[in-house]
Amino acid sequence: MAKAGLNRIDMPKQAVAKRIQNFSEVATGYTPSDAHIEAARCLQCKKRYCVEGCPVNIDIPEFILALREGDMPEAARILKKTNSLPGVCGRVCPQETQCEQACILNKKEVPIAIGRLERFVADWEREHSAEVNLPKSLKPKSGKKAAVVGAGPAGLTASAELARLGHDVTLFESLHTAGGVLMYGIPEFRLPKDIVQGEVEYVKSLGVKIELNAVAGRLFSLDDLFKQGFQAVFLATGAGLPLFLNVQGENLNGVYSANEFLTRINLMKAHSFPEYDTPVKKGKKVAVIGGGNVAMDAARCALRLGAEEVSIIYRRSEVELPARKEEVENAREEGIKFHFLTSPVRFLANEQGKVRAMDCQKMELGEPDASGRRRPIPVDGSEFEMDIDLAIIALGTRPNPLVMQSAPDLQVNPNGTVAAGISGQTSHKAVWAGGDIVTGSDTVISAMGAAKRSALVMDEYLRSL
Amino acid sequence: MYTIVERQDLLPKVHLLKIQAPKVAAAAAAGQFVILRIDAEGERFPLTIADWDVKAGTVTVIYMEIGASTRKLAKLGAGDAILDFAGPLGKPTEIENFGTVVCVSGGFAMATIVPIARAMKEAGNRVISVVGARSKDLFFWHDRLEKYSDEMIVCTDDGSAGIKGVVTEPLRDLLASSTKVDRVIVIGPSVMMKFCSKTTQPFGVKTIVSLNPIMIDGTGMCGCCRVSLDGQTRFACVDGPEFDGHKVDWDGLLVRQKSYVAEEAVAAERCRCKEEGCGSHG
């Protein structure tokens, strides 16, 4: 549990009353003086636990030192050397379980705010990219061709690494914009879309070609890629297939998957309908089912669309909430209500076939299940009805089977994930996979870490050809 | 950007576009669709692939002006371009030599059923086409369909051509006749597909329908297009769009298609104001 405040510099945020009226970023970022005071706390340890805690092993003490000495281009260069998406990671990584948890200061006081400093440096670089042209340290061309499928965090990272290592990389993306969950999933108020696109542009500047509207498994199969001359493939199509509750009334109007609700808003800008052509339902009483970051994002979006009451319905207790503490806190501050130990049993319709209420039952916690969390058990006779006019289902996602259907020789696990070894090697000798397609829904940074490991092995393979 | 190489006005509100998209053309098969986005403010919407030309690298779509996006599309012609064109999407039609296949279509689906009739004919089937429209002025591509059909049955609501009445009547007559029908394929408005399925059910003839729910991504990541089949939820964009018409929850589908009626009216009104320059909408 973090020891509040002490000497760590707080993140400035938009006031609650103001921020719930807009989709702008909630955390406004460190000022230069905030950043310098925070950077000064770093002990510059010889044994760098923080670096070990980072899935892509950023040289953390080095970039903090450069920042402290006022050499911002150097700080940015150190970040970009190992991480192509620092503006994204500084914002959405769960640092509390990674670099910051490993920080030596965590033992006595509070850890260095590494994520906030990373974000500060990335934002500085973005604003100064015109005058500061960072060297890209590209290796000489290898003459080898690699295909990366899916332009989310894993695909972008693998593409950037492979391009840096000298390979000719094409990145195939099924949607009309690159970024994956960074574009369609995480809302603008946590991750501004121009920052994501800035980082996509950086990946392109390394020589990566991006083909949009290219749906793997339909426009091309895995075999087609090899026929087109690609010598190695990295699959990073994520876990985008939404899970539903499979209860009565789930297909009523006004019942969304979180993926649909968030895609309408984030990717299609439906909150600006009719200036943008995609509509989205604005509920007055909204229930979001689930307790992860996606549930928090959906709830806070619904609130910003003008809902009077937004409730998170979660079948376990507060302790088991999988969302980041910071996001739960933000949601609470904004007035989101939490119903723990509660689970929907059916949705009820009005005469137009639109959802008007949800029957729920109370749960109690039993023995720990396979996930190590205590299993929720329904309490007999505890059913109650909750009036709602919009429901958003955020129970998690599974890998989309489209790509795998087009590659019958690819080994797939019973839960739909692709079977892959530690460096992402699949059952196909020239195909690697990484990110959510292998792990099921996980964090942005773990996907990036996996992509990086695969890129290094793919490099060896490509050079051996 | 995807360039429109040809536009034809088939009916006053029904247009054909040939779009330059060589990769999509090379991968397309009967029964599949594409998702379009016209411009940066645009929505993503699906259109069935009506034809394709691998050599020329073009894909043909046919659409009817019914709302804001299709009206926006109707302002474009040869030489213009649309921003996004993703496909081919959905599973291709199951093509085999079934024996005798009846292809039923209505509205502008009389064009989108042509590639299916063609593929069925090429697979060795005897193809009987049943085409319906309100009146004879609303027919097009009749000659193309005829080319792949061993028999053509035409119906009009007003009797201006062929049989007076709707397609379910000749369909029932066919099934009740001595002709052995091995498969029925129906494409058209949902209500038509629903009643054709109800017509064929008592005869136990497998009936395939091509559903048209609301879609966004078209790649299976949102479930907007979900439909209930014998109580199981399926995503039309990846599991379909073709399904067994006897298993579809038609009433559920019809209700979900009306989800955004109010918003569609707002968008259409805004579109009209912009065209007429009422000045109150930027």
From TrEMBL, chain A:
Its EC number is 1.4.1.13. The keyword Oxidoreductase applies. Signal peptide: none annotated. One of its GO terms (molecular function) is iron-sulfur cluster binding. Residues 33-63 form the 4Fe-4S ferredoxin-type domain. It holds the Pfam family Pyr_redox_2. Keywords: Oxidoreductase. SUPFAM superfamilies: alpha-helical ferredoxin, Nucleotide-binding domain. It is an enzyme of class 1 (oxidoreductase). NCBIfam families: gltA. This is Glutamate synthase (NADPH), homotetrameric. It comes from Dehalococcoides mccartyi (strain CBDB1). The gene is gltA.
